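fwd from M.: "can u put these together and see what the complex looks like"

so here's what she sent:
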Amino acid sequence: MISCLVLERPGTWRTIGVTALLFIAVLPAAPLVWSALVSLASASVFAGNAFQNAIENSILLALCVAVVSLAIGLPFGVLTALYEFPGRSVFFALATLPLLVPSFLWAIGWASLAARLAPFVSTTLSGFPGCLVVMSTQGIPLVLLIAYAATLALSGSQVDAARLAGGERVVVRSVARYVASPTLLAAGLSGVLTLSDPGPGQIFGFPTAASEILISFSARYDFVLAGRQCVMLTALVLALAAPLVFFSIPRLASEVLVRQSRKVRRIQHQRLAGVVVAALGIFVFIGILVPLLGLMLPLVGGTAFFRAWNELSHTAGNTLGYAIGAGTIATFLGLPLALCAGRNDQLRAVCFGVALGLLSLPPAFTALGIVQLAAAAPAWADLFLRSRFTVCMALGLRFFPVVAVLGLRAWGATSATWVLVASLHGVSLGTYLRRVTLPLLLPVGGVGLLLVALLATADISTVLLLHPPGERSLPLAILTVMANAPETLVASLCLVYVTAAIGLLTVVWTIAEGRNV
Amino acid sequence: MKGTFVSCLVILMGAGICACEQKSAQEVVVYTSVDDVFARPIAQRFEKETDITVRLVPDTEETKSTGLLNRLLAEKERPQADVFWSGDPVRAAILKAKGVAAPYRSPQADGLPPRFSDPDGHWTGFSARARVLMYNRNLVPEGQEPASVMDLLDPRFKGKACIANPLFGTTSMHAAALFAILGEDKAKAFFEGFSANDGKMLSSNGEVRRRVATGEFAVGVTDTDDVNVARLEGKPVGMVYPDANGMGTLIIPNCAVLIANGPNPDAGRRFIDYLLRPETEQALAESEAAQIPLRPGVPVPEAVPSIERLKPMAVNYTTLAGLLETLSSGYLPEWVDQQSR
């Protein structure tokens, strides 16, 4: 019988486990990274001044998005977890909607609306401001969800104690301080995610590193140059993220010595509930309704709902399948990675660094790596490398760092003494994993799965490059018809998609609320 | 929560099982850079007539995606596609240069002008779009329409002219054509003059269409299908085939490319034969794309000019591909960078 004590002891299995899991995650990008690294010796320059300027722009944008997401997402997440307010499920569905919709669709919505208003609106939005608005719209929900989940991880007694000590002000301040560490990580991740997204930069005319990499891929067809640029960007991200890693790693491992089973109870507080509703309302209006208005104005001139419904019925299965598949794969990789890293600071730092590096890579980089692997593999491997499963796998691998970081934090927050006590009572590893670890990590796995599913749905590049012919997702269908389709059709498709997404998210949030997840 | 996890696992397994879906008796995999709304009806007609299932994988300039051409290049060793239906000859020429295209001379190509096809048969041109000047009729009075792309440098269009990003799509091909026809100095002078006249670079041709239609810009350069869609939507826009008395209008034929070592070569050839038929040219002319048949004598609607009525720019499309490669690594990114500041 293997003792559960192994979970808290150092061992080579940790290094082997972490290496194996990270190897799986990095493998698809390996062919292009390798060819880029090989070419480094012969390359006199990485990509010229334009790329250096673009990198500066990208880093600035990422930092601003992280700051804005943290500043708005943290208080929203804490307040929504602590206080009751009417229409929670719908508000949450609307607030998380930006994660489901590809960023450049928001950008097109803003640009279309601005064009109909006045030239100065377009001028104001062009460049950095437009990118910041769109990217922050996607970063805020990520931080909000993590802050919400982290607040719910507190025990009800802790919150009640803070309330008795100094009222609601102390509660909010204490909880915000407690959730600051994971939300800072989430803000960092949302900033890093902007680095790989070329859409808004292209639409608002703001040169970013992702745009330059896209140009290398799509205008020059130079995979090696694109690879070198990705390597440079990733190295820079890691260098800049080093302070964040050093700051976060010890806090990630700070265990909760006393964990009580009583969950946080949301209370009625008229004034704070009003603040939450007003703030969420403003976010939903500015971040979501305004760009949606831009996308859907053509509906005034007519609709094409039959065609849109037809498209939805053909693609809904794939869309859901890709999203859930990606979430599941990310969870099955991310949580074991956290378990293997345990409380070992070095392994945690490696995991965190690789996670950031993977997130900063453009999706096409990993996807093209898989396409090349599939082309070199025998036909029987098509089941894994050229199927719908491949799309799930690629999306799961791309976003698994999100689950891994959540898992690292969750495992670090458990008490090591539990394992010691259990081992004294002769509890086996299997029993401990089943009875203690799994129930502890399941909520984190659930949140991670949901987040990855949402992010995966909005990822067009991976689906475009990997979907089996004829098996596209709804967002991809919208994007491939929108170039020259009548505006009414595009608007109808957007409306159908957004309505379906809000409906689905409302159901998810209603279930979550009902179970007090 | 446990139940949710188990459900997810079951769904994932289901997805994996579905991945081994049965293939129909005969199928053809077609990658296309032609807009989905125009390509799909043609594919559906082919299915009806031949009982061969078409698995269509469309792409679009609008998404600014890494694109299907990269997928084709990466799949070169063991391709999934049988046919690439390209919206322009430059991408087709790149596929030929990279060894992805196989030569195929379709019997249906008779009557198509050879100057729009590859002399070695690696791609065959048919129905075409043209690069045109689109203007807003509320902003440009009758009789004062622009007649040449050089009119974009005219002070009356200061701050009121737009083009799409010349690193992508048909605009990149147009830029290469200007360099080929005008020479490097004059072409650079055109781009610099455009910037000096406060001309604006937008993200795509679709964006040019939308913003000229709304009146934010008076004139823009885009493709005939963009203008036709705007017209059908009742937008106040007009169109000019530029430089009818000068260097001519850039014609952008569709191209059918047979992929080397594709999984269904016979079905691929049949699809190409179908694309090159006069009936397909007519269907594309009658569609919202309003494409111009290259074969003389194909009946066209009133809004579509016959190719004989136009003065096509005298460019060699294979040369354009090479020139574009050079420009994409040199002048064009510099100009785009300058525009973005």
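replying to her w this: Residues 156-195 of chain A form the longest helix (40 residues).
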